[in-house]
Design goal:
It contains 4 helices and 5 strands; from the N terminus they run ααβββαββα. It has one domain. It starts with a helix and ends with a helix. The strands form 2 sheets. Strands 1-2-3 form a 3-stranded antiparallel β-sheet, with no helix packed on it. Strands 4-5 form a two-stranded antiparallel sheet. Helix content is about 20%, strand content about 15%.
């Protein structure tokens, strides 16, 4: 949930959370599915995933998002990551955000979840 200070500031600006229950908080953020791994062709660059590419896993129907770190020193972390929950995304838009590697960044940083998923 939101940190107390962030919640107080948000409330002063009239922000009301659209999340009404713990179940909704824990639900995976409904990221737009825009990639099909079956279309991948190593010889066709246009079929390669890029940051923000999202697909649903066949077995669990969980959304996974591709991330290529903005910082070249972290390129070894490039790959597929589970999309965060609805509650986490709300928090990441209102206060510092995690990136897929678990590092804290500003919400509008290119490596933040809100930026990667096109929310900010």
């Amino acid at each position: 949930m939101l940190q107390a200070e962030t919640a107080a500031i948000a409330a002063k600006f009239g922000y009301v959370s659209p999340i009404s229950s713990q179940e909704e908080y824990d639900e995976q953020y409904p990221a737009e599915v825009n990639y099909n791994p079956k279309d991948f062709d190593i010889d066709k660059k246009e079929t390669h995933p890029k940051t923000g590419s999202v697909y649903l896993t066949e077995r669990t129907s969980k959304a996974r998002c591709y991330w290529r770190p903005y910082n070249k020193e972290n390129r070894d972390l490039e790959g597929w990551y589970d999309v965060p929950s609805m509650g986490e995304m709300e928090e990441y838009c209102l206060q510092d955000s995690l990136n897929p590697a678990g590092d804290w960044v500003e919400p509008d940083h290119p490596d933040s979840w809100p930026s990667i998923l096109g929310v900010i």
